[in-house]
Amino acid sequence: xxxxxxxxxxxxxxxxxxxxxxxxxxxxxxxxxxxxxxxxxxxxxxxxxxxxxxxxxxxxxxxxxxxxxxxxxxxxxxxxxxxxxxxxxxxxxxxxxxxxxxxxxxxxxxxxxxxxxxxxxxxxxxxxxxxxxxxxxxxxxxxxxxxxxxxxxxxxxxxxxxxxxxxxxxxxxxxxxxxxxxxxxxxxxxxxxxxxxxxxxxxxxxxxxxxxxxxxxxxxxxxxxxxxxxxxxxxxxxxxxxxxxxxxxxxxxxxxxxxxxxxxxxxxxxxxxxxxxxxxxxxxxxxxxxxxxxxxxxxxxxxxxxxxxxxxxxxxxxxxxxxxxxxxxxxxxxxxxxxxxxxxxxxxxxxxxxxxxxxxxxxxxxxxxxxxxxxxxxxxxx
Length: 382
What we know:
Elements: H1 9-19, H2 22-29, H3 36-43, E1 48-50, E2 65-67, E3 70-72, E4 76-78, H4 91-102, E5 106-109, H5 116-122, E6 127-131, H6 137-149, E7 154-158, H7 168-173, H8 186-190, H9 193-201, H10 224-231, H11 238-248, E8 252-257, H12 260-268, E9 273-276, H13 290-301, E10 306-310, H14 316-325, E11 329-332, H15 334-366, E12 379-381
Parallel strand pairs: 4-11, 5-6, 6-7, 7-8, 8-9, 9-10, 10-11
Antiparallel strand pairs: 1-12, 2-3
Cofactor: FMN
Domain FMN hydroxy acid dehydrogenase: 1-382
Pfam family, one: FMN_dh
């Protein structure tokens, strides 16, 4: 199977599985506990049907929209995800270049493998920094100041990872950051020589946004579960979020909001946007799918704050359903990580091409010429 054989996001997943050592693939693909929530995130879209209009004159269509004050050529964002150099040697650089080419938002994580400054210098695309609040207040302040200096367009505070979910696939494989070879996984690394050679002889794996504050995850290998459980601030509360918004001073979002009550609190502290997200099912297993919560949250705060639907997005029609239900845009991580792992920047660009074509096709078949025309009249719940 080659990149040209990939015609949907699941095809990229299949190719990524062939090209990655199994501990690395399972880190991307896995989720918490029984992985019920991960499965629900995508399945939730199947419970709502699209209702098309015909004879609508759709020769010319406009897929663009405004997200957090920036024009986006698609109603789709590439969510910030950690450790991208573990999946492909180019990591966040490849994603940033692909996002710029397609004119869409992308984000980098506090645990990115390329620095805030390097990514800022690389691209003019709208870019977001995802902040994990660490116990080390100096580190938090440092990352915020570096993002200001680098002119990041927005900061998103992740609020659903004060402790790590129990990611059982990672516990079984012994996956760490940086990745390390173990007896049980040695054969898998040996039979993926392209990945292994890139990792061993490529640039040293590091987490440069933590420079000067944390050795764990960069010079010292730890599991993600251990990192979250020892490094992140479990005392974070709404006062913390309000303080970070004030310290940042720019466009500010909360990532991981799942209840209407919390959406209202986000409005009250002056947030510009919320991500309805359960961290890809990697935290609280048994929680609701973001799409299932979207209507309730839109009914509470729609029109007062931008609402990004994050999680389970695999098709252009999923983006359409999210917008019709009231979301500003949709967002996802695995939808481009599989492609990054499969083929680097070329993979991400092919994934975005496929999703763009699916959105355009769906718009024409729905009888809309702009994404702003989508509304709940176009949906029926099964």
